[in-house]
Amino acid sequence: MAEPLPLDVAATLNALLTGSDQVSSALRAQLPYARAVGRYGCGCATVDVAVDHTAVPPAPAHGNPAADAWYAEPEDAGVMVFTKDGYLSLTYSASSEPISTWREPRFVER
After folding, report:
1. Quick one: CA torsion of 21, 23, 24, 28, rounded to 10 degrees?
2. Is residue 99 helix, strand or coil?
């Protein structure tokens, strides 16, 4: 079931999509229309995201991941943003140990 995008996920996405390029700007514009539609059973913070396609246009063509970064803490943790057809689709946390909560955006190192 879709639920509002959690504030910590939205803050992380906003931090990852800070660029002034067309892709980052278009994906950032999708945040108000994004919803969390799934999570993984492993205990990690990864979130499946769906965007209302009628409310906002897709981002221009780009590669995947659309954005990625490492965290300053813990050192071996990172986050990636994937899209499908120009729309946000997955925010993925990566680490040697599952990250169960999103780190504060200030720890994102692009």
Report:
1. 130
2. coil
Q: Which of 12-26, 29-43, 46-60, 68-82 has the lowest mean pLDDT?
A: 68-82
Residue 108 near residue 93, CB atoms below 8 Å:
no
Under DSSP, the state recorded for 57 is: P
Contact 102, 12 (CB under 8 A): yes
Provide the H-helix boundaries in the chain. Answer: 7-16, 22-30
pLDDT higher than 70, residue 14: yes
- Among all chains, which residue has been given the structure tokens 């979130």? 47
Nearest-angstrom CA–CA distance, 42 and 52: 27
pLDDT digits (tens, 9 = 90+) for 15-48: 999 889 999 999 999 999 999 998 877 777 888 9
Which of 42, 48, 44 is CA-nearest to residue 103? Answer: 44
Residue type, 108: V
Determine the 3-state secondary structure of 22 from DSSP.
helix
